[in-house]
C-alpha cells in the first residue's frame, strides 16, 4: 500500500525528510480496526516527531495522527464497529501513524464520523477536539451544566490554532465567557468567528488588557502556546482557586510558587496519555468523539479546516509541515486521498 514516511529525521527542506513509500498492508487483530484512510489532518505533533535528530529507522516511520476513513476489517475482539462504518480518530503515538492507505487503530479511541461532514472536514477534528475536550472538562473540571458557568471566564492563549478554535466553541456551548488571545488582524478575525467574546494580544501584558475590559481575573486558563513565556502572565490573571491547563511542554523550569497564594491548580493535557499507558479511561476517547460528532450534527460546533493541501503525498505533506513550522497557521490543514 502507499504511504508517506521517513527513515531519517531531517529539516523539512531536505528532499528525504518525507518520502513516498510502498509498505505492507496491516491486519486487524484483537480490538484493532483496519481503516481505509480517506483523509488526514496535520498537527504540530507531526512536525515535533519529525524534527531533526540522529536516530535512523530500519523500518520506515509513518507519521499522521488525525484520520477520517472507512472500517475495512475488525479484530476478533471488536464490539463497537463493523466493516463499512465511517469513523474518525487521532490514533496512538506509540504506533505507526496514518499517512498511509490503510491504518490499524484500537477501537476504544475511535468515534463515528459526523454524518454531516465530508471526510476532509471530519479529519480536521479528532486530535484538536479530544485535546480541547479533555483539557476543558477533565483537567479544568468545567461543568457541562450551563447554569453553573454563568459569569465564569476562560482565557485561551493562542485562540486561532487548531485546539484553540475548537476549545472556544466547546466553551461557548456551555455558556462560558471566552477571552482569546490573537496578535494579527487575520487571527483576531478568526477567533471572533469561532465565538470569542473578548480578544487580547498575548505579546502584551495580559492583566492590564483584561482590566481595560473590566475583567479583574479569570476562572480558567488554557495555554496553547509557550508555557514558560506566558507563565507569569497566567499567574497574574488566574482567580483565587482557579485552574490552569497547558498542552505545551516547557523548555525551561517554571515557578509553581507563583500559584501558591491563590491555591490555583496547574495540570497538563496530553491527548495520547490514555493510549500510551493503556489507562482504564481509554474508552472515554471513543465516547468523547461520539459526543463531538453529535455536537457537529446538531450544529453546536463546526470543523475548522482552513487549508486543503490536496492529495496525500510527500510533496504536499512537506508543504503542510513547513506551514506548521512557520508558527502562523490558522485553523487546520487537511489532505485527502492518494494519487
TrEMBL record:
Domain Enoyl reductase (ER): 16-335
Pfam short name (any one): ADH_N
InterPro entries, sorted: ADH-like_N, ADH_Zn_typ-1, ER, GroES-like_sf, NAD(P)-bd_dom_sf, Quin_OxRdtase/zeta-crystal_CS, YIM1/Zinc_Alcohol_DH_Fams
Superkingdom in the source lineage: Bacteria
Keyword Zinc belongs to the record: yes
Keywords: Metal-binding, Oxidoreductase, Zinc
Keyword match Cell inner membrane: no
Family statement drawn from the similarity comment of this UniProt entry: Belongs to the zinc-containing alcohol dehydrogenase family. Quinone oxidoreductase subfamily.
Official protein name in the record: Zinc-type alcohol dehydrogenase-like protein
Organism, scientific name: Tetragenococcus osmophilus
Upper lineage: Bacteria, Bacillati, Bacillota, Bacilli, Lactobacillales
Amino acid at each position: 500500500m502507499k504511504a508517506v514516511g521517513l527513515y531519517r529525521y531531517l529539516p523539512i527542506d531536505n528532499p528525504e525528510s518525507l518520502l513516498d513509500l510502498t509498505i505492507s498492508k496491516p491486519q486487524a487483530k484483537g480490538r484493532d480496526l483496519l481503516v481505509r484512510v480517506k483523509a488526514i489532518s496535520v498537527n504540530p505533533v507531526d512536525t515535533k516527531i519529525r524534527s531533526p535528530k540522529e536516530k535512523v529507522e530500519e523500518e520506515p516511520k509513518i507519521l499522521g495522527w488525525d484520520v477520517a476513513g472507512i472500517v475495512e476489517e475488525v479484530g476478533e475482539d471488536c464490539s463497537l464497529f463493523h466493516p463499512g462504518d465511517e469513523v474518525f480518530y487521532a490514533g496512538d503515538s506509540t504506533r505507526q501513524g496514518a499517512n498511509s492507505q490503510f491504518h490499524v487503530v484500537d477501537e476504544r479511541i475511535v468515534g463515528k464520523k459526523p454524518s454531516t461532514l465530508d471526510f476532509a472536514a471530519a479529519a480536521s477534528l479528532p486530535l484538536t477536539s479530544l485535546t480541547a475536550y479533555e483539557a476543558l472538562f477533565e483537567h479544568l473540571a468545567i461543568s457541562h451544566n450551563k447554569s453553573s458557568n454563568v459569569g465564569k471566564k476562560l482565557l485561551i492563549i493562542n485562540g486561532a490554532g487548531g485546539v484553540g478554535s475548537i476549545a472556544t466553541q466547546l466553551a461557548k456551548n456551555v455558556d462560558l465567557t471566552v477571552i482569546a488571545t490573537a496578535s494579527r488582524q487575520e487571527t483576531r478575525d478568526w477567533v471572533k468567528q469561532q465565538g470569542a467574546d473578548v480578544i487580547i494580544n498575548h505579546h502584551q501584558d495580559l492583566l492590564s488588557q483584561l482590566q481595560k475590559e473590566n475583567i479583574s481575573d479569570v476562572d480558567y486558563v488554557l495555554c496553547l502556546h509557550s508555557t514558560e513565556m506566558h507563565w507569569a502572565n497566567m499567574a497574574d490573571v488566574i482567580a483565587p482557586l482557579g485552574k490552569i491547563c497547558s498542552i505545551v511542554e516547557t523548555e525551561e523550569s517554571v515557578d509553581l510558587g507563583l500559584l501558591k497564594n491563590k491555591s490555583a491548580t496547574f495540570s497538563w493535557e496530553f491527548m495520547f496519555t490514555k493510549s500510551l499507558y493503556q489507562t482504564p479511561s481509554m474508552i472515554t476517547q471513543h465516547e468523547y468523539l461520539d459526543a463531538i460528532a453529535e455536537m457537529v450534527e446538531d450544529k453546536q460546533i463546526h470543523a475548522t479546516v482552513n487549508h486543503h493541501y490536496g492529495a496525500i503525498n510527500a510533496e504536499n505533506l512537506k508543504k503542510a509541515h513547513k506551514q506548521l513550522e512557520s508558527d502562523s497557521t490558522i485553523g487546520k490543514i487537511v489532505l485527502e486521498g492518494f494519487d
